[in-house]
Amino acid sequence: MTDERFDAVVIGTGPAGEVAVSRLSDQGLRVALVERELIGGECAYWACIPSKTLLRPPETRFDARRAAGVEEPAVHWPQVAEYRDEMIRNLDDSGQVKGYEDQGVVVVRGEARIAGPGRVDVDGRMLETDRIIVATGSDASIPPIEGLSAAGYWTNREATTLKELPASIVILGGGPVGVELAQFFCRFGAKVTLVQSAERLVHREDPAVGALILDVLREEGIDVRLDTRAERVRLERGERVVTLGDGQDVRGQELLVATGRTPRVEGIGLDKVGIEADPSGIQVDARCRAGDGVWAIGDVTGVMPFTHVGMYQGRIVAADIAGRTTKADYSAIPRVVFSDPEIAAVGLTEQQAREQGIDVATSRISLPDSIARPWTYEKEPRGDLGLIADRDHQVLVGAWAVAPLAGEWIHQAALAIKTKTPLEVLRDTVAQFPTFSEAYLKAVEALDD
Ligand SMILES: Cc1cc2nc3c(=O)[nH]c(=O)nc-3n(C[C@H](O)[C@H](O)[C@H](O)COP(=O)(O)OP(=O)(O)OC[C@H]3O[C@@H](n4cnc5c(N)ncnc54)[C@H](O)[C@@H]3O)c2cc1C
User: Fold this and answer.
1) Separation of alpha carbons 238 and 4, rounded Å
2) Average pLDDT, stretch 262-269?
3) Atom of ligand 1 nearest to the CA of 17
4) What is the pLDDT of residue 277?
5) Average pLDDT over the chain, rounded to whole?
6) If we measure between CA atoms, which residue out of 363, 346, 343 comes closest to residue 404?
7) What is the DSSP string of 158-177?
């Protein structure tokens, strides 16, 4: 069979690969995309989209509880699941295939392997190109726990596509995925045990964040175990029984492993182009170049496992290939956990700022003590905002919030960090009354000088 030639071949079409494909095609390049599962990747079918869709209905019920004079709405699981299925396109990407083909993109189904410089083998079909873009994403990391495989477990895939709600569940991992899904299962009536090996939840964020969300989850009835690991798992009368490091057993009808992600670097032929299959991800430069004629984007780079980061890197690659000088800047990428209240953070934590030798000023304010919006929003107002500033340069370097809608208004901090807006300008910036955004002025004024 003769080889087919393309201007670019994109391996994997999660959000990162999709952006690269669309942009390169829009730039007039002849593009082939290779996908072994579904166009849209983890995010569209088993991650961001189903999880956020599933979290919203119970959140609405809790919103109603918190607003004055509102009767609590009923939430019906079958309709929630039906809408989730609609949102994940019933695991059918034929619309996406048609969309790309209409655009002139060649869609190749199958498992891609780099066969050598400029050559991609898809189950025996050879694609030739000067530009290979690797966007193979990540898999759920499965820790080596005795008995885990034999007992059976869920990853994000089973949890986000479930049909029947479990009566009880043990969740391993107290990061963003563990926290979101713990709240989802609990709010749908399951008895939830959340096991976190670190001393606090979402432990990569400022310590205050973990403490605040811990209180919320415990108040909702989630049994949170911190600073302990799952040592062994066994199946006992239809239940997964997990023995923890402290010797205690916790049990659940289901067991969800949410202990992080592993970049998909194995078996894709990186060695054929002299790239090391580093388990932490493909090393890339600021233009997402991984080697001669090879770029890598999204979770497979291990830079930051977020859809918006992968999409950003897709734009960077397209710009680089178009010959525009461009460099990725990750200093102001928002990080949101869609719990209720939401956790949002951007930039450096206080500890990271200190480690970088920054002369740090911080503030933390309680929203109900500082502004009006939390009171008009709900009867028992909530929320905290923390800022991290660079004293010498008089700019923000980090921010975090645990509060309603924090995932929306964190973007003000993101813009301030990205553009290095002087604190003086933030003090002189006027927010609409009464909004959560007003908190920034109070927090900037509260920075220790
Ligand atoms: C439960 C959960 C919730 C999340 N929620 C959010 C959120 O709200 N917001 C957010 O920003 N991020 C969220 N994330 C993270 C987000 O899903 C990922 O960052 C994102 O999907 C990464 O995109 P990607 O394109 O790099 O890879 P993926 O989405 O993993 O896609 C990679 C694609 O490559 C294909 N592929 C792999 N190897 C090959 C091969 N050899 N040949 C052909 N095709 C191949 C795969 O089939 C897949 O379709 C969440 C993750 C989880 C697990």
Assistant:
1) 52
2) 98
3) 25
4) 82
5) 97
6) 343
7) HHHS-SS--SEEEEE--SHH
